[in-house]
């Protein structure tokens, strides 16, 4: 049974979907006004992995992630760069798609954009105004938060105690109450605009996601997710609009990921301490970045340091070596032979099934990838130990292990294209691993397996030379 921690109830809840085996999920995507940074990647990778796990467990996931392409920060960047908002959006959106692909993020079912949904958004604001939850003031339209009695329930605040800090334009004299937020913004000189019943202007940010989630998923959805910084005011304001208009619940489970911290401060553009993905991937593999992020539970903060990401790269490489070695053995052995199971074979099959069950147990508890990776690492050690000790690699045992590694890779989004990893650097690491295993066989005086590794490498064009101090290798013609 899958349990999810919902921000709204602040407790673990049994996961039950609105439709059997179908997940309706809306994830707040990025504002495309700059390059993708590690903070964006943390959220995207965390929810991509949860999505993958739900699919592994048999759900069809309708995953909607928007791109915010019209918003105050978009206009600021466009003005600074002396370009149109559309030009800025198109450029950075293309970069985001590139970086998302580089991190092996699955595309959403739909990636809606606010600019392409302006007419239904205007109609949405009109409905709120007609119901008495919105008011016009000098061309702007605001949501009257005091009309919605449950305002503050997601962020666990009472309306009279809500701090003005963080609320949008709290000192605006056009607003009836400081926490009221803009549904429609009147055009200022040089800004893009759309015609509306209130004059030229554009939609407010807090209305974009609530409208698009309804268009693509319906009025009630299973999961709504985003970073912790979106709990207030963005997601709080989404709830207010959706539930005021429809008179019923908007979302069943609210998921929020923790921050990435640098020097104990949240990574953000305003602080200037963010790490661009394109630069990070010049030094580290995408698998190392995913492993770095997923080794921590998605709701917990992550501290980013060079040492931590360096270790993630080392760990990722070691894990890959074992998975690749396992796959090579599994591919070599074509026929299954159930009649020749040794005690080592039987133990590996038992450990494989236990690892699968332990991983599912970890992930069922609010998608705990931290505990899940502990299972993966232990299993990789068990497989490595089996390969070192087994006199004959059994087909049933190694194929089951390979199958489980495939499941782990699929869920965690790791090492999906093996051919892309077979560079000389990767081959060198694999050869060294085989030499290490051969060394263990030699210590045990298992000359048959020791010679087999040497001969197989020679047949593959890799010659070993035993010296008093170490074993050397070279590529042969």
In brief:
Helices cover 47% and strands 14% of the residues. The chain has 14 helices and 15 strands. Strand 5 and strand 6 (140-143) form a beta hairpin.
How would you describe this structure to a colleague?
With 477 residues, the chain is an alpha/beta fold. The protein has helices at 38-56, 72-81, 85-102, 118-130, 205-217, 231-246, 277-280, 286-294, 306-332, 343-364, 369-389, 395-412, 424-443, 447-459; strands at 3-6, 11-14, 22-27, 60-65, 134-137, 140-143, 181-186, 201-203, 221-227, 251-257, 260-262, 265-266, 302-303, 462-466, 471-475. It has 3 domains: 3-128 and 208-282, Rossmann fold; 316-406, no CATH class; 424-475, no CATH class. Helix 6 (231-246) links the parallel strand 9 and strand 10 (251-257). It has a 4-stranded parallel beta sheet with strand order 4-3-9-10, sandwiched between helices. 41% of the residues are buried. Helix 1 packs across helix 12 (395-412), helix 8 packs across helix 9 and helix 10 runs parallel beside helix 12 (395-412). The model has no long low-confidence stretch (mean pLDDT 90). It contains 14 helices and 15 strands.
